[in-house]
Amino acid sequence: MTALKMTVDKNNRISKINKEIYGHFAEHLGRCIYGGIYVGEDSPIPNTKGIRNDVVEALKAIKLPVLRWPGGCFADTYHWRDGIGPKENRKKIVNIHWGGVTEDNSFGTHEFLDFCEMVGCEAYVAVNVGSGTVQEAAEWMEYMTSANESPMTELRRKNGREKPWKVKYVGIGNENWGCGGEMNADYYSSLYKQFHCFTRGAEQQIACGPNGNDVNWTEKMMKNVGPWQMQGLSLHNYTVPTNHWQHKGDSVKFDEAEYYNTLQHTWFMERILKDQEGIMQRYDNEKRIGLIVDEWGIWTDVLEGTNPGFLYQQNSMRDAILASINLNIFNEHSARVKMANIAQMVNVLQAVILTEGEKMIKTPTYHVFDMYKEHMEADLVYSNCDNRELEAKDGKFPAVSQSVSVDAEGKMHITVSNASLEEDFEIECLMPRAEYKNASAKILTAKYDAINTFDNPDAVAPKAYDGVALDGEKLTIKLPACSVVAIELC
Ligand code: AHR
């Protein structure tokens, strides 16, 4: 076991960790909405207003803070009026981006916002900029959020909802540099400002930001749009195991070399945040505009035998380590990163939940969200850990990644992961002036390619862990290879 030293200063508070950093994304794509969230009121699968009860319960358990909908690329093809009113009258459309399948619009505005209320999360709605109009977006916002008399609110009442819903965030388009209209930054920023003037009713308006580390897009957006016009700038970045979009790598069959390469690639998130924050800082040093990482996660080839347009992939212990690294990075950058939404919540990409008919499983990534949930709304405090460099084909990266926060009751939470497949670590953690009496911990560990299946749903699941020992201001953490550990000190 290799000894490492860590220092934590509980009095050195860096930033508040917004709960929305633990956010999710659900698109009309494959089986995310249909089958994954919504099964219809007549389904034999237990549901409330057509929404799966098992999924609601699982999401409540991780305290899901915010959900982004209806896309993704789908958002810029979505016309909200198609998804309201009696289901039998709803228009059927072709989902042009995702498999060309028929979308019957049985899950629309009411179903989404009711779902958010059932889960107890904030709603983040993306309006259609690419193929929609300003008026359409303005009326949608009024339909959802206004309490006054108007044709839109009358229509909402006629459709069964008296009170307005709370929509905390509105996204103005999605990937408008790509599937959302192939615009350039100058054109989009003018369009953004026009939409911004009329899409009222949400607390925060979020603009489309860069593709990965596109600094030019961010520079133009920050120059052209001010903090009184946007409260957030979104950013999308996926981790592709091979870094080749044609052959991304398998979600189940991969070797140790690909495991290491995937994790090396995921650390690019840190580079991106540093570069993007640097630009934002020059225009907004008071950090009034949040960086909103509203799509992130691992993107592999689809699971063998499944529809290529449905982006269904399995989820392994590798993905749990990847999630822990990214969440630690977001915590570390929480002075600027105000929201992050893993893509996607159910049955698509790095899903936390997989379903098959009436069966539902929690993936290893789900368990990481569960173990990290105590960081939400807590203060990030200073921590520094010695590290070991791991070597992947495409470069080096750190073995250990950690975050430490202190919550409103004064409890400390430490999350730490070890990406090495060979080396166990014993971390001696010094915490000057910390006065805790008890330490308890959980661990998630398994073979790097272990997965949960419908026949074996708990192959990768957290367990209580006795590998931590508290002695006054010193905490000793045994950190096995390929593991994530969450510790509470009180
Ligand atoms: O999450 C899948 C797709 O990835 C989204 O629709 C799009 O925004 C991104 O390119």
The main sheet orders its strands as 23-22-26-20-19-16-1-21-25-24
| Mean pLDDT across all amino acids | 97
CATH topology assignment of the largest domain? TIM Barrel
Overall morphology: globular
- Kindly report the oligomeric state of this protein: single chain
How many individual β-strands?
Answer: 26
Question: What's the CATH H-level superfamily name of the largest domain?
Answer: Glycosidases
Largest sheet: 10 strands, mixed
Residue runs with pLDDT of under 50 for 5 or more positions = none
The CATH top-level class label of the largest domain: Alpha Beta
Strand content: 25-35%
What is the alpha-carbon Rg in Å? 22 Å
Terminal-residue CA separation: 27 Å
- The helix content, as a percent range, equals 10-25%
Please name the CATH architecture of the largest domain: Alpha-Beta Barrel
Derived structural class: alpha/beta
Ligand species: alpha-L-arabinofuranose
Number of domains: 2
- DSSP summary: helix tally: 10
How does this structure look, described?
This protein has ten helices and 26 strands. With 490 residues, it is α/β, with parallel strands linked by helices. The model has no long low-confidence stretch (mean pLDDT 97). Bound molecules: alpha-L-arabinofuranose. Alpha-L-arabinofuranose is lined by residues 27, 71-73, 174-175, 236, 295, 343-344, 349.
What's the gist of this structure?
This protein has 490 residues and is α/β, with parallel strands linked by helices.
Give structural attributes.
490 residues, alpha/beta, Immunoglobulin-like, 8-stranded parallel β-barrel, 24% helix, 28% strand
